[in-house]
Amino acid sequence: MSLRFEALARSHDRERFSCGVDELDHYLRRQARLDAERNVAAAFVVVDEAAPPQIMGYYTLSAYTVVPDEIPEALQKKLPRYPRLPATLLGRLARDRRFPGTGQLLLIDVLKRCHDLRTQIATLAMVAEAKDERARSFYLKFGFLPLGTDPRRVFLPLGTITQLLARKA
Ligand SMILES: CC(C)(COP(=O)(O)OP(=O)(O)OC[C@H]1O[C@@H](n2cnc3c(N)ncnc32)[C@H](O)[C@@H]1OP(=O)(O)O)[C@@H](O)C(=O)NCCC(=O)NCCS
To answer: Which helix (H) or strand (E) holds 34?
Structure first.
């Protein structure tokens, strides 16, 4: 199977996508393209080159900020005391139930995209909003750390992203 990661487009079959979480299916069907058009969240999908309309998984990215007090002290010490620091928000990530194993591939593409763009739009970390405990443990497995006091929010510093990608290369 040859996979392609690309921006969500009209040609993709959003109606058949089913990840098992209604809210995430509904978002892809009804909201994702609108949010992308309005520059609220960029949506990316992964497809098989042999069946390009079929969406195997998707994720969304937006610009974001964190307050220094939300991140661990050891990291804070290395950063300027600005009231807000730049980050990238991984708002949603889901894969279709027919394609187990795609979650990790989506996350690697997210991290690559974040890393590749860092010289154009500086970002200190990838922040993810996990919608439940299962999603949170998925992110923690890849080294994400708790962010602030909201248990749903986790983050991965850019330095860790660089190390992870070097290991995968
Ligand atoms: C969470 C989700 C993306 C995981 O996708 P997946 O295709 O099952 O993940 P993968 O098989 O690529 O898993 C990669 C690794 O994470 C682990 N993993 C998967 N789901 C996990 C979970 N809920 N908790 C802990 N680890 C998890 C896998 O065991 C695997 O580890 P391994 O390489 O050591 O075997 C998928 O279940 C999904 O789309 N769920 C519905 C939407 C959702 O909850 N999204 C989360 C963000 S809001």
So the answer is: helix 32-37
Q: Whose CA is nearest to atom 38 of ligand 1?
A: 94
- How far apart are the C-alpha atoms of 79 and 167, rounded to whole Å? 26
Confidence bin at 155 (pLDDT 50/70/90): very high
Separation of 57 CA from ligand 1 center, angstroms? 12
Q: Does the CB atom of residue 22 touch ligand 1 within 6 A?
A: no
- pLDDT over 80 at 169, yes or no: no
> What is the value of pTM for the model shown?
0.95
Q: Which of 64, 63, 59 is nearest to 32 (CA)?
A: 59
For residue 80, what are the domain limits? 3-168
158-168 and 102-117 helices, crossing angle to 10°: 120
Q: Find the CATH number of the domain harbouring 130.
A: 3.40.630.30
| Pocket flag, ligand 1, residue 136 (CB < 6 Å) | no
Count structural domains, the chain.
1
Ligand 1 nearest-atom number relative to CA 99: 7
Three-class DSSP category at 77: coil
What separation in Å is there between the alpha carbon of 94 and the centre of ligand 1? 9
